[in-house]
Amino acid sequence: MSADFLYLVEVILNGLMAGVMYSLVALGFVLIFKASGIFNYAQGVMALFAALTLVGIQTGQVPFAHLINAIFGTNVHHFGWQVPTVLAIALTVGVMVLFAIIVERYILHHLVNQEPIILFMATIGLAYFMEGFGDIMWGSQIKTMDVGLPSGGSLWLEEYTQGWAAEGERYYGMYLDKLDMVASLVAIVLVVSLTIFSQYTTTGRALRAVADDHQAALSVGISLRTIWVIVWSIAGFVALVAGIMWGAKSGVQFSLSLIALKALPVLMLGGFTSIPGAIIGGLIIGVGEKLFEYAIGPLIGGATENWFAYVLALMFLVFRPQGLFGEKIIERV
Amino acid sequence: MFYRESGDFKKTYQKDSQTFPIKFDRMRYYFVLAVAFLVIPMFLTDYMANAVMIPFLVWAIAALGLNILVGYTGQLSLGTGGFMAVGAYATYKLMTAFPGMDMVTVILLSGLITAFVGAMFGLPSLRIKGFYLAVATLASQFFLVWLLNKVPWFYNNSASGQISAPEREMFGVIITGPHATPVAAYLFCLVFAVALAWLARNLTRGRLGRSWMAIRDMDIAAEIIGVNPLMAKLSAFAVSSFFIGIAGSLFFSVYLGAAEVTEAFGITVSFAVLFMIIIGGLGSIFGSFVGAAFMVLMPVLLKNVLVGGMGWPTDLAAHFEYIIVGGLIIIFLIVEPHGLAQMARVLKEKLRLWPFPH
Amino acid sequence: MTEPLQKMEAASKLLELKNIDLSFGGVKAISNISFDVMEGEVRAIIGPNGAGKSSMLNVINGFYHPQQGEIWFDGKQRRSMKPYQIAYQGISRTFQNIALFKGMSVLDNIMTGRFTHMRKNMLWQALWKGPAEQEEIENREFVEDIIDFLEIQAIRKTPVGRLPYGLQKRVELGRALAAQPKMLLLDEPMAGMNVEEKEDMCRFILDVNDTFGTTIVLIEHDMGVVMDIADRVVVLDYGRKIGDGTPDVVRNDQTVIDAYLGVSH
Ligand SMILES: Nc1ncnc2c1ncn2[C@@H]1O[C@H](COP(=O)(O)OP(=O)(O)O)[C@@H](O)[C@H]1O
Ligand SMILES: [Mg+2]
Q1: Which CATH architecture has domain C1-90+181-265?
Q2: Segments making up each domain of chain B, as ranges
Q3: B204 CA to chain A: closest CA distance, Å?
């Protein structure tokens, strides 16, 4: 095999793994959209908030330390204990459930029957609110996410593939990030378990029913409000997983919330209501943007990843407004 | 008691479609204009001009523009930052390429250039609707910022990647560059803000404005009545971008003086302007001004109270700003989607009937 | 019986549909339907729910594009056209489910109906003073006449969303009339109305037809109403035409009776 070809394979593999990460965030959007018709812009900030909370609990940070110090002139910061990772994750899940309840009670409940675009703007407000709130609660400095995930490139793979290049070519082996590989695995497990959940449990079936028809869901015997809390809790959990992966990759900081922006074109491509769409859309965009940057990027100044996904999704939508998996709808009057 | 409609009957349709049908409102409007043009310049400190009045006017113009698109035509756009950047860079290129061109021409041309770019990016709105379109407008945001950052021609190959406004005068007074007179710069922006508000008012009350609102409220019915959706949407994108381009142009040349595209025109700008129109009032010209005033004053106020008054660190105050803005957006969308402007209207309605409520 | 026939002989065909076929995916909404509409007549389309009546109107005003068939309007065969172009040809309509502009006042809704009659371009409008204002006032006068005609003066400035259903239907008729159409399509204009409101609406429809000579195609379920105001009736069932003629003929047609009283409906 020629080294060029191997590079290409490497780019594609990296793209696939990046795509999985995008899908992970997109998944949260799809869950909420299917169950409530809300395009939740705050999904990215939820990931940031979950990651902040996890790190904060784990390292024994005093919540609102900054604010307490400013008001009382004290100097508190840490409790001085470390919480085991598993317990910290469980507590964070609890916080996200609490968050879901608050969102349902104080926001969604008051916005039922509003136009989708109003709901969307409300979630932009929510995103801003949470961003400020998360920073006040846990501080805005960059934190490292240490939950025992591996990091760095896989040396084993590098050595194993070194000999693959043709004789005489300089090739140092394939570089894949171990964290990316783990993240891909986790994402796959998450998708499979969510699918099982929605297919084989009563709650799951109620969730799917509500996506099709609100009345039908009521007949399953679960109130709409409960369903919304459940959905937002699950989305919070997905956000936590995404927050852990992205946080471990690039630190827990403000920019984490911007992963939402990466997930949006995935949704445009895959459609807002389709879980397979989110996954395939994520993979297409992950591979597409890596390939584009690899092949065209150097010619036009690089950093094309900032917009490639959007332009791709845009062009795609202009020709197929219903997305990859949506059916063509003829409007009625 | 003197806020009265009675005795103020409209005898002609011309009178009936006036901007301020009630005499008291009309008088108050002239009063505000007089204060803005004559009184404020006399007392305006440099700090007030630079920190409050000029940004207020510039943002008000941007909010007017976005309101035409979102509030009147119902097309949610998150690309405001990118379009402001186009206005700013157009101004920079025009100012450096044609040093003799006067500022009014430069700014109007920048607006027209942005209008053209905006219309181009508005093309997908014909096929894509709702938040699919909102997300699509993000494409313009990211693409334009990337383009202006990557192509050195746009910033005349400057090493820092920054653009900075050369000095220009109007009527012998410097209004751009480091030596500008803040009061003159304020008046310059004021003229644009007033003229553009008048323009927005005219465009929204006639045939074109009705076609925008028709598209917003029920696009299919609008088309069946004879509104060409392409023309209505593209004209909204173009007019909106014209305003936003002028805002970007003034933001760069008069307010900032120097700018770097990723910092000055990022996505936060797009959101900030969106928040202005939600808080001020969707589909309201007055609301665009109110919202801009709110978004400019709130941080200044917070900073003075929390940092100046209570001695808190600045970053804490900044976080509170996020909480307050985010919280207010939610509250307004729940309680009064038509914003502060509508609240004022309701209050007026009550005042009109006072002291005899129904 | 004799009167409508005389009317038909004098007039010419304003609209002619030939062998129209329309389907959505696998669902056939209209199969091989032909009928015509004479200038100045009131033509009713009746049929059970889902028969394809609304789809028929949508074909006429260009919102749906039939897969087969010819449409002749005003002596010319229609090429493929967008709905807004058809509005300029003089067809306007109301909708089965009210499609008013919710955020606008009654006046603005009806003024929007004048869209095809206003020509001043964006630059004039930006200036307002002068030609644009002049045009606005002329059209406003026309609209005020419609408001008087429909007896809705009192609610002129009310946002349409706040009006009761019956009045909304009336405003929608006003908006369609504002276009001064050659042909007016009304999709169940009296559905959901009480007897009094229905009588008002009938009166308006007949008045429009009499005073302006506007050709009217209307869908209506109430057979009594149809018998009263229609000159001729088309009967649809499952997307096919099962009857066509004067109300009396149609009423006594066995196929029509079966369709209405038959097992499945
Ligand atoms: N836009 C559409 N998409 C899919 N099916 C449609 C559409 N419009 C109408 N139909 C179908 O065409 C048939 C006729 O509908 P319609 O014309 O509304 O009937 P009617 O007005 O006589 O009650 C129905 O089966 C309906 O489901
Ligand atoms: Mg129907």
Answers
A1: 3-Layer(aba) Sandwich (3.40)
A2: 48-267
A3: 22
